[in-house]
Amino acid sequence: MQLENLIKEIREKLKAGCFVNEASVSTGVLLPVLQTLGWKVFDTQIIWPEYSIRGKRVDFALCHPATKPAIFVEVKKVGQKEGGDEQLFQYAFDEGIPMAVLTDGQEWLFYLPAERGNYDERCAYKLDLLEREIGDSCDRLRKYLCYKRVCNEEAINAARSDYKNDYNIITMKATMPRAWKKLLEEQDGLLVDLIAETTEDLCGNKPNPDLVGDFLREQLHQVMPEKLVRENANFKENQKMDDRSLKRLGRKGRAYEFNIRGQKFTGNSARDVLIGVFEELTKRDPSFPNRFMARKHGRKRRYMAGTKEELYPDRPDLCNDHSYRLKSGQWIGVNYSVTSIQDIIMIAAEVAGLKFGSDLIVSLGE
Hints:
3-stranded antiparallel beta sheet
């Protein structure tokens, strides 16, 4: 299979939450990618699983020549790679490995342990298979992980060159406006919290997430035209929404409700709709919670988790008052603005195999 076709297939499975643990990421993502890049994945002297280092183990050692590691790879669950870099760096330092890769299947971080700086500063490149174009993803994977390039050291030399290349600085500066626009569009929980807490420090009153969301939408209008704001906020990777779904959320007089393939449900708030959608999707498909939890969520938060403490690892004070336990036993967070709730529901629709705006329609108005 060509790498482009494989990455396309992996992207679809990532969206559907098919990789529910580290083993499924290894067998469903890492090993097929390595095989397509020329590695002999069934030769354990080339792809050495559970490589032992003085009583500790790294998930995979990519070896050249046989039994001699050239790259260490650590695999984590999708969206839960935090902390994996420290463990991986220790392994790499102990063995003098020039390149280390940390992946959760969706994100791939290519590290150069021998360079200076903290872990982030020694990351030569970060690849997100869902954020980048398929062609770009394939180019990077070939550049750093192609078996022939690893054997003749072109891969490590390319990583070192990219790490030191001033062009990367120019690219990062040019990308920062897009990053700011993306934060405004997504209304990231950390950004919402930071604005709310700083507002409280300055005036004594703390705005709720919806009020902060309104403020961020106003900032977004200053960054790009109204038409593009609406398109970027409501379209996700070729998902077309009907005319009703294109109306602005939060318009007075609209009901709190959702409709799944013609079956209508109502609630008293946007959070009721969020809870109702998750309850109904779980009722229709008991595998939905595990597949949803296998998706990458927020930068720090989990939209759904097995315990309420996992929902807000950065804000334990929110666990009790802003968590809801579903009938299936899982917990979901509800401390989100209307726009963020819509984004979470859109991910849920994707995992459930529903087309947002037609199979699943929501109204989150006041």
